[in-house]
Design a protein that fits this description.
alpha/beta; seven-stranded parallel beta sheet; 708 residues; six-stranded parallel beta sheet
Length: 708
């Protein structure tokens, strides 16, 4: 009898043996990146042994019966003492299961339950595999504890699911589809050198310092062995290009495969990805976050299809993604999320704005970074203008690999472009009065409600408001107007939530910042005298305390920031920044750094993959997107109403969506101001609620933007 794995639409048949061998070779190649080639081959050869059953062959011919074809191979791996491969095989379709316990019933979906099912002979007979293939004997892989074991299992699982998908895809398509690709690191580095060649020789002191930082980072890329690094460059120091220069030289020198940028906000991702595309070319850069959707079926634009496939496994030279997506994938159980993980091995991973790592998940995040560095050949760079005090946590998980600073030589005074001034408690009227006294000024506050209150008090000649209650295309238009007025010397007074702090390129002579964490204050200061065209003494950042208590989300950062400002006149000094992060983490306490007890559960329970995946969500607040039918959004929503779908449409619609919290959505829905379409999409029907200046009218108190 010929046992089949797949039948293509055109009638072509792939045998189980062909699929096992193809998957095994791919899986072995992926696992070789972290020294487990033979274990990868075992996982590939065993993953579909259950397809040698008569029941599965009937299923392939159209029978409606359900067939468990994953457990048989997992049981065979267990017989060989290879539990890591067994977990990977067991989960290659349905996701990594929880380990469970010996008392689990054989019908339970835990790993122990499924192994009991196999031991009791409850699986469809599939012994025919023994007539066609054999399984290799592989040395045991030893680890120091359950944390490392779970991490390794997830990496091996990634190798298997990617190999399985790729082999199946190739057979079903009848050809290898173009994926990833891109230029080698040597060519990418040459493109970068061409891009920066015009910077030399530098013509100003500031540019001379930027060029020195760039040259130093390139030298360090060659000199440093793979490991853990910090890159502490002040705002305006050319951090984006310098970090890329280090990564390219480092990857070329040490044979690393790709460069991955992990960034907290989509606004920064879009900006940085565009810079990388300009330097390296579009075919070498993958931008992967919820705001970018590539249509894999878009045959008219094959490049989009290639990029869509690359999002599945990150097979690209440069990947730019969100911190949420990166860390959630490292603690996920589903194949779609884990598939890309093996491509992290032997990469340079740059954590831009590292101070923004989610504090309630800080210890699990640091553990994951440490694992990548220790066992998977990763060079991790914590890149920021305000380096957080993470030394103690890294010493816990990476005791023998202290972080090396890549750029200790810059002159702080060269980049000092502002002075800080503290005000006491101010009413919103007093804040508005001070802003109105400036021709051009930026005010950043902690809540959307506060931003709207101040805006209502401003002189309207040249007044602007920015918040996440404005759809992205609207914010983009407003920012273009703001930049034009700033450049032309026209009145320009802007009040905004914290969304403007990171990655938004604006340059004001004066900035007002409501008390916040020191990292937020310094980010706000980066919007003042950004290009260094004015003397520092003429560029003032005013920090004030409002009459409104800070949102609960900000209470501890505000307290730590206040203590730091009481101690240091100039909070941008390295010693002030270090003091702030020590205070912040101290006030939160050690329990707050792993709020969901992720690491404790991993140590206490047997391989709790699903339990951990359900707990690890850095953004816990659920939001609903409301589409606004204005501008191009009106036509896009018309297409959506007509039944049109597809990733390209929803990608375009993302520029006309506003995220609202559940209570706000419920109020809109109750009032009949929104319409929920058949596909679940929500459209604003009462356009009177959307203001050209302030966006969607809601009484919302949270001002921190959510980006996933």
């Amino acid at each position: 009898m010929t046992y089949l794995a797949h039948i293509a639409q055109d009638g072509r048949r792939q045998t189980v043996l062909e699929h096992l061998n193809g998957t095994a070779e791919l899986c072995a190649g992926f696992a070789a990146a972290f020294g487990t080639e033979e274990l990868g081959r075992l996982a590939g050869l065993s993953h579909d042994l259950g397809k040698y059953s008569d029941a599965f062959q009937r299923r392939l011919q159209g029978s409606p019966e359900h067939v468990d074809h994953s457990t048989a191979g997992a049981a065979e791996c267990c017989k060989l003492g290879q539990s890591f491969a067994a977990f990977a095989v067991a989960g290659h379709h349905g996701g990594l299961p929880d380990g469970g316990g010996q008392g689990d019933h054989y019908e339970e979906k835990t790993f122990c339950g499924r192994m009991k099912k196999a031991a009791m002979g409850k699986l469809e007979p599939c012994d025919a595999w023994q007539q066609e293939t054999g399984l290799p004997t592989v040395p045991q892989r030893m680890f120091s504890g359950p944390l490392e074991e779970m991490f390794f299992t997830r990496m091996l699982y990634s190798c298997l699911v990617d190999a399985d998908f790729l082999d199946t895809e190739t057979f079903m398509a009848g050809r290898e589809r173009e994926r990833g690709g891109g230029d080698p690191m040597e060519i990418l580095e040459a493109k970068l050198h061409s891009y920066v060649s015009g910077w030399f020789p530098p013509k100003t002191e500031l540019n001379r310092e930027r060029c020195e930082i760039l040259k130093h980072c390139i030298e360090q890329g060659e000199r440093q062995r793979p490991g853990l690094f910090t890159l502490t460059i002040p705002t305006g120091g050319g951090k984006t290009v310098a970090s890329l220069a280090f990564a390219l030289r480092h990857a070329r020198t040490h044979g690393l495969s790709r460069i991955i940028y992990v960034i907290p906000y989509t606004s920064i991702i879009e900006q940085n990805a565009q810079v990388f595309r300009e330097i390296l070319g579009e075919k070498n850069v993958l931008e992967h976050h919820s705001g970018v959707l590539y249509d894999i079926e878009d045959e008219a634009r094959p490049e989009n299809a290639r990029l869509a496939r690359a999002t599945e496994n990150w097979d690209m030279p440069v990947v730019v993604t969100t911190a949420v997506q990166f860390f959630e994938s490292l603690f996920a159980s589903r194949s779609s999320q884990c598939r890309k993980l093996h491509n992290l091995a032997k990469s340079v991973v740059i954590f831009d704005e590292a101070q923004m790592m989610p504090v309630p998940y800080l210890r699990p995040c640091v553990f994951a970074i440490a694992q990548l560095v220790k066992d998977y050949g990763v060079s991790a760079v914590l890149c920021t203008a305000t380096q957080p005090a993470l030394d103690g946590i890294f010493r816990e998980f990476l005791p023998d690999r202290p972080a090396a600073e890549l750029c200790p030589m810059f002159h702080q005074e060269t980049f000092r472009r502002v002075i800080f001034r503290r005000e006491g408690k101010l009413s919103w009227e007093a804040v508005a009065e001070q802003i109105n006294g400036q021709k051009q000024a930026l005010c950043i506050v902690n809540s959307r409600k506060s931003a709207q209150t101040i805006y209502d008090l401003l002189d309207k000649d040249g007044a602007f408001h920015l918040s996440t209650l404005m759809y992205p295309a609207h914010r983009k238009t407003m920012l273009e107007k703001i930049r034009t007025r700033l450049k032309d010397g026209l009145p320009c007074r802007v009040v905004s939530t914290s969304l403007i702090e990171a990655g938004v390129d604006v340059d004001f002579p004066a900035v007002f910042r409501e008390e916040a964490g020191l990292d937020s204050i310094l980010q706000a200061a980066g919007r003042c005298n950004r290009e260094g065209k004015r003397a520092a003494g003429e560029s003032v950042v005013t920090v004030f305390q409002s009459e409104t208590p800070p949102p609960s989300l900000f209470e501890i950062p505000v307290a730590a920031g206040r203590q730091t400002l009481n101690r240091y006149d100039q909070p941008d000094k390295p010693e002030a920044i270090r003091y702030y992060f020590q205070e912040l983490l101290g006030l939160k306490g050690p329990e707050a750094l792993d709020q969901k007890n992720i690491l404790k559960i991993m140590e206490r329970e047997f391989m709790p993959f699903r339990n951990i995946a359900e707990r690890f969500h850095p953004i816990d607040t659920e939001t609903r997107t409301v589409y606004i039918p204005l501008g191009e959004g009106e036509e896009l929503i018309r297409r959506l109403r007509s039944g049109e779908g597809g990733r390209a449409l929803f990608r375009a619609l993302g520029q006309y969506g506003v995220s609202v919290y559940p209570q706000h959505f419920a109020a809109l829905d109750l009032a009949g101001d929104v319409e929920v379409l058949e596909d679940g999409s929500t459209v604003l029907t009462n356009l009177a609620l959307y203001d050209d200046s302030t966006g969607l009218s809601l009484s919302a108190d949270e001002g921190k933007a959510l980006f996933i």
